[in-house]
Amino acid sequence: MHTPSVVRPVVPSIRPRAGATAALLLALLATGCVGGVKSGRRPALEAPPEELAGPVGQDPDVASANPPGGRDEPVVETPVILEDRYVGTIGDRDLADLRRDWRLFLRKDRAWPEARDRWLARGGPYPYVIAENLLRYFLSASAYGDRRDLSWIAVSAKKIGEPSVGYFGSLLILDQRPLQQPVRLRGKDGTVKLVQTWINDDVTRQQLAMILAYVGEPAVSTLASDAYLRGTSSNARRYVMYALGRIGSDRAVDALAPMLSAADWQDRATAAKSLGVALAAGRNERARAPLLRATGDPDAFVRKKVEEALAGRSKLDF
């Protein structure tokens, strides 16, 4: 799947307690965030719910709760266009029903998985609309740094599968984007700084890689493409490889193996570490052969990472 089209502007809302990272992430939304369904008017972004989800990769076991007050409608719309390609239209009744069911996601209601799967089974524009909502919710959850919110997102992204990949992947490989509306940030010393460009960071990329890795095999084709695996950003390439290593499938290993011959020694070291993750605990022995061929790498640090990988000592922080 190619990188989705840019969305139209939206002015998001956020609680006053949000910090600088939150302000920048949400200002990015105001410019039109990468990955999304092109549209006209959009409701404001939801702030993260108070209820908490379980560890990443597990369906959270949480009780139903009344929806928090003061929340806006979710971001759903009609018609739906992705990559300048018409994928369907949502009627007014379905639109109202989808908005109602999205509130189940926001409050982490036990009824959400059933409602979500019902919409996904209909195909057409529905997986894309839900995926876009997940990305926009991610930007808020990431700003607040709540890993349990990320788990709640990852579970639904995995259920959606490939339609969710372009949304989260396109943000992972983005280095920076000018802000249409500059953000004023006050430092600890009281000085005010005017920020006009959103710059991606390793924390956000790690969280995106975590979600894409949990999506699994449906993400491999996109992650293995040249735009992702051989893009201009070294930081993006690193987390793309980490996601592939965490997925650890045959196709993921086959995509990583050529990176052991990359010109950049850091890319080769990352590829070795990622293949080591795929190999760990006997998950995929397919990773062993390319690692053995890389034991003679001219760089000492790369050789160290290869040795660690073959010894089963490669680990990721997510």
Structural account:
The chain has 318 residues and is mainly α. It has helices spanning 20-31, 92-106, 112-120, 126-144, 147-160, 162-172, 202-215, 220-223, 226-229, 234-247, 250-256, 265-279, 288-293, 300-310, and strands at residues 80-82, 85-88, 176-186, 192-199. The strands form 2 sheets. The chain has a two-stranded antiparallel ribbon. A hairpin with a 5-residue loop joins β3 (176-186) and β4 (192-199). α10 packs parallel to α12 (265-279). It is globular, with a radius of gyration of 20 Å. The model is unreliable at 1-18 and 31-78 (pLDDT under 50).
- Major sheet details: 2 strands, antiparallel
Query: β content, as a range?
Result: 5-15%
Biggest sheet strand line-up? 1-2
First-residue to last-residue Cα separation: 25 Å
Number of E strands: 4
Overall average pLDDT = 78
Structural class computed from helices and strand pairing: mainly alpha
Helical residue percent band: 40-55%
- Helix-strand topology string: HEEHHHHHEEHHHHHHHH
Radius of gyration: 20 Å
| Unreliable residue runs | 1-18, 31-78
Shape: globular
How many distinct helices?
Answer: 14
Which keywords apply here?
two-stranded antiparallel ribbon; two-stranded antiparallel sheet; mainly alpha; 14 helices; 49% helix; disordered N terminus; globular; single chain; 318 residues
